[in-house]
Amino acid sequence: MIVAERKSLDQIESMIEGFEKVLIAGCGTCVAVCMSGGEKQVELLAAELRMKGKLAGRNRRIDEITVTRQCDKEYLDQLARYVDQYDAIVSTACGAGVQFLAERYDTKIVLPALNTRFIGVAEGPGVWSQRCMACAECILDQTGGICPMTLCAKNLLNGPCGGTNHGKCEVDSQKDCAWTLIYRRLEKLGRLDLMTKIQPPKNYQPMTKPGRFTHEAFEQAEGNEE
Amino acid sequence: MTDKTQADPFEPKLVAFCCTYCAYTAGDLAGSMRLDYAPNVRVVKILCTGKIDAVLLLRAFEDGADGVYVAGCARGDCHFLEGNLRAIQVVAYAKKLLAEIGVEPERLEFFHIPASAGPLFAARANEMTDRVRKLGPNRLRAAAGQDAGGKLGNPVDEHAPLPPARFGRLITDAERVVGRIGNPP
User: Who among A47, A63, A82 is closest to B62 (CB)?
Assistant: First the structure.
């Protein structure tokens, strides 16, 4: 899931400075799960902005709506009947959602309420950590299901380096050495032979930005339309 | 309520979210014991303080409450094991949000009030009322009735939702429906 955190109220407040009618558009998928931009968080943000506005004596209208996803056109269309009434839309989606919303309603000012952090997992209640950096060439089969691209500070594919220190990383002594974790896991799995395999240099070409992907089943259809 | 003249001292309005099992029962007990406590407190009975959400607390202030407190069971006594512990976290979070907005976080508090503590219920009500009286009126009260927006009606989903997913169900090869071709019944 995409993990994001909300910007500070002051930052959001300064973005909507001067707008009288603002719509807060939530996203009900990833950012709802990581408690930063779902329906509940939209309610909270809207209540905060309304109260702050009232305290400052501003005559401002803050409305709220949450759609299932902001990264699918079908769900963005649901906002069509509302957007014209507003001076600006504050989106609590990830960066992708904000951009898609801004693209769909390109005459509207669309503002981001979140800082998008990473692709990660929920470690526990309210705690998320990064597990994937979308390198486009997954090697988890060779590393016991632990990603050295993400967890190793040096992105080493053949580790550990000389900086591994009793299971911790030389870059940050609080962080686990990814390659120690990989060694322990492979040991547990009885697949330590994988440690001796030398990984070829990483091909970074598939990571070139901006990424684009067409599902095989749709490639033909896309070609025909042109 | 009678109209008050300007000379009247400020009388705060407080909302107390009380859990059924402890704080609300303590309130009942305070009544049975004929204890006097501040009439400023409006009690809202909730099943468990674990139900409390930061939105509910903020909304109380948005609607003009001068003070809000959440009262639940003692540590370890929650009927639902850890509802009160969650409420403590939520109240702490809501205090931060209030500070961000510019409302004094002291207007919000969490109290443990066991079911047998009628006098404590009265003492907490008085304590919180005094605290809020010193802080003065909630500056949002004047604008409480003013329409500043709200939740828009969710549009009817034009795209039929997907059939319910059956996540977590193991589908094995054995339960696959076998085709009839070359396999007459």
Answer: A47
From B44's Cα to the closest Cα of chain A, the distance in A is 21
Of B146, B152, B159, the CB nearest to A63: B152
A209 token code pair: 């930005």
Rounded Cα distance between B124 and B136, Å, is 18
* Exposure class string for A14-35: b at 16+ Cβ within 10 A, else e: ebbeebeebbbbbbbbbbbebb
- Residue among B25, B152, B102, B134 nearest A43 (CA): B152
Residues of A in contact with B158 (CB under 8 A): 74, 77-78
Q: What is the pTM of this model?
A: 0.86
CB contact under 8 A, B150 and A51: no
**Contact (CB<8Å) A54/B151:** no
Q: Which domains does chain A have, with CATH numbers?
A: 2-118 (3.40.50.2300), 133-202 (no CATH)
Q: What would the pLDDT profile of A180-205 be if each residue is shown by its tens digit? A: 999 999 999 999 999 999 999 999 99
A65, B152 in Cβ contact below 8 A?
A: yes
Delineate the domains of chain B, giving CATH numbers in brackets. 14-135 (3.40.50)
Question: Number of residue pairs across A and B with CB atoms under 8 Å?
Answer: 76
Could you report the per-residue pLDDT of A109-160, keeping only the tens digit for each? 999 999 999 999 999 989 999 999 999 999 999 999 999 999 999 999 998 9
| Residues in chain B within 8 Å Cβ distance of A11 | none
